[in-house]
Amino acid sequence: MNMNEQTIDSNFKQVLKAVNFETPDRLPFCGHFWGDFPQNWCKYMGLPENTHPDDYYGRYLCEHLGNETLFPSRSGQVIRTEGEYDIIDDGWGRLIRRSRDVYFSETIDRVLKNHRDLDKIVPEPANLDLRFDENFYRHLQNLRDRGVFVLAKIGGLYCRGQFIRGEEDLLMDMMLEKKFCHEFFDILAEHLTAMALETLKRGDFWNTGLIVCDDMAGGTAPNFGPDIFAEFLLPRYKKMLATLRQAGCPRFFFHSDGCIGPLLDMLIEAGFEAFNPLEPACGLDLPSLSAKYGKKIILCGGVCNTRILPRGDKKEIEAHVRPLIELGREGGIILGLASIGDDVSPEAYDFYMSLIKKYGNYN
Predict the structure, then answer these.
(1) Peptide bond into 277 cis (omega under 30)
(2) Alpha-carbon distance 27 to 355, whole Å?
(3) How far is 152 from 274, CA to CA, in rounded Å?
(4) What backbone phi and psi angles, to 5 degrees, belong to 203?
(5) Per-residue pLDDT for 190 more than 70?
(6) Is residue 41 pLDDT above 90, yes or no?
(7) Which long-range contacts does 244-250 make (Cβ < 8 Å, 24+ apart)?
(8) Is 283:306 a contact under the CB 8 Å cutoff?
(9) Which end of the chain is more exposed for a tag (fewer CB within 10 A), N or C?
(10) Residue 49 DSSP code
(11) In what order do the strands lie in the sheet with 94-99?
(12) Rounded to whole angstroms, how far apart are CA atoms 275 and 302?
């Protein structure tokens, strides 16, 4: 299933057909890898250790972003060191403590500790060149040279709001401090809209679109009720997407892990038309969503990476995946998983990909 030049040239076209509800020549797919999976996969496949699964199976879809922090001139600065930890200004008005050996970090201080500190949240301009450095353009060109359908990316109102305010405080504010929240989300919406416009322009994403990544749900429910979404997020997303669509953005993807089902109709009302990763373990079943919404939304994801693939039972995997592949025949489907990590065996993943190759060639 190694890629060749013809595959690279047409991957973009397959995604474009799918999002336009045309039958693709072959089913496009998406997903990203974490942990030791790529190294374990290389060993299992007997390939050189620097081989990446995307180089072997192909890559159809991904997102790309600039430095969208509030204060990019300070982003990443190491303020001091404490033994094995660096204390870093992350550009979101936070100081974080991070070990040099791991990804995760701990917030130890914020600019927005109190409601009266809201006047300190004055984002630096979106059009600063330092937000879009050489790596932004180099990596983007590399993706396009490989035929990837690349979306511009921004973080979402809730996700970025909790960066600045802290999740527990923000959730309490959304219940009890509504005047503050309206002012706070107005500032954030203006900044993210400006960042989206600048990213679309700098990266020339006018033929693909934008993905907003706004994790706002757990495994069984959103982090807040539909009434909270309707009050704070829906009107701002409507305004943001209307502004971006008027500027020429052709389509809008929305990403949130977890159970976003109770918010889905309002997200559609806001203007989103493609959704990812639609985890079946969270009650988001692709056949049911397709039956309900038809060509109203694009389904991007739908494969179970928490139960079915980790169990590694090939009969179970095929029974799960075959109907999803068939569903993609009429377009509107980009098959994928939320992520592929150490809990998925390389053998199970390779078998899953073999099903896409075998049954997802529609012509």
Answers:
(1) yes
(2) 11
(3) 14
(4) -95, 0
(5) yes
(6) yes
(7) 244/193, 244/196, 244/197, 244/200, 244/210, 245/271, 247/197, 247/200, 248/200, 248/206, 249/196, 249/200, 249/205, 249/206, 249/209, 249/210, 250/206, 250/207, 250/208, 250/209
(8) no
(9) C
(10) T
(11) 77-82, 85-89, 94-99, 105-110
(12) 10
Residue 95 pairs in a beta bridge with: 89, 109
**How big is the chain, counted in residues?**
363
**pLDDT, averaged across the chain:** 95
> What span, in angstroms and rounded, lies between the C-alpha atoms of 335 and 277?
9
Encoded tokens for 332: 């509107």
SS3 of residue 99 by DSSP = strand
Q: How far apart are CA 214 and CA 223, in angstroms?
A: 11
Please compute the mean of the pLDDT values over residues 113-119 and round it to a whole number. Answer: 95
| Token output for 232 | 């704070």
pLDDT at 9: 55
Residues 53-87: pLDDT tens digits?
A: 999 999 999 999 999 999 999 999 999 999 999 99
Residue type present at position 207 = N
